[in-house]
Input
Amino acid sequence: IAVLFVAVLAASTYGATLIPADATRTLLESHQGLVARHARERITAIYGVPFATDSDPQTSTENFVDWFIDEYADAFGVENVILEQVRPADYIRNNKFAVYTFEQRTPDGLPVHATMVKIPVLLGPTEKIGYVGIRLIPLPSTFPADTIGEQQALLIVAGMTEYAQLINHSDPQLVAYEDEMRVVRRCWRFVRW
Output
């Protein structure tokens, strides 16, 4: 199985920025005992203390994601974050937890590959949120016009000898993709097997 990306325009790039230290410090200091996990100079999870309960309407479970992103998006090095819930709450461990999962979107609604905000909520007389798994990507305000269409992307990949034996594929999906150099591009994503 291979997940493949074909850039729609080689020059449609945007370099990502690192976490602003002051914004990160503000987030951690606002909730004493909060711990941040990092990967590649970005916060990927925060945990350690319950920082929201349903007793506070501003940070209730249903309002938490909007409030949290509005309040702390700069701590994650992103601006104007758009999220979409990608599946209904998953209830786990004998309905003691509900897990809400969101995916980042571009301003024009494209999914941003491998992004998420995952929030497990401890259910009970008072719901508590004590962990947020997060991976957000700074995006450009606009992307250049596409120059490679869906069919061209399929032809490009079909011509790659290393994937020739993989004859089945999913339908291509246009996404924003951050490569290993932290360059964000609009790409066609599809899976071949």
Q: What stands out?
A: Residues 142 and 154 are 25 Å apart (CA to CA). The beta strands are 2-7, 35-39, 42-53, 82-92, 97-105, 116-122, 128-135, 173-178, 184-192. The two ends are 4 Å apart (CA to CA). The chain is about 15% helix and 40% strand.
